[in-house]
Write a structure and sequence with these properties.
- The protein is globular and about 40 Å long.
- The protein is an all-beta fold.
- Strands 2, 4, 5, 6, 9, 10 and 11 form a 7-stranded mixed β-sheet that branches. The protein has a 4-stranded antiparallel β-sheet with strand order 1-3-8-7, with no helix packed on it.
- It is built from no helices and 11 strands.
- Helix content is 0%, strand content 50%.
């Protein structure tokens, strides 16, 4: 089982990034998928969750209206489109599946001028 995130980087406030998570080793379409983020010294927090077919999504209040979670079950890919980024969004972002409670290695997002 493997989750590999990519797409992080440095962006100015107000900018956008698209994170990707490549999944392998399990039946991707059979599991709810999530994005989490973590700042050093703080607990990991959920950012967004997407249903098996992508038809239902939920967001934490601090990203609602700015971030969009999506998935491609044919490509075994999870995405997080992040718009109107704020310095407070700076964190390591992780994708997660409940299958064997698997986490990716994380990708750093830094929002700074």
């Amino acid at each position: 089982v493997q989750l590999v995130e990519s797409g992080g980087g440095l962006v100015q406030p107000g900018g956008s990034l698209r994170l990707s998570c490549a999944a392998s080793g399990f039946t991707f379409s059979s599991y709810v998928m999530s994005w989490y983020r973590q700042v050093p010294g703080k607990e990991r927090e959920v950012v967004a969750v997407i249903s098996l077919d992508g038809g239902s999504t939920n967001y934490s209040y601090f990203v609602k209206g700015r971030f969009t979670i999506s998935r491609d079950n044919f490509k075994n890919m999870l995405y997080l489109q992040m718009n109107s980024l704020e310095p407070e969004d700076t964190a390591v972002y992780y994708c997660y599946t409940s299958y064997k409670r698997t986490w990716g290695q994380g990708t750093q997002v830094t929002v700074s001028s």
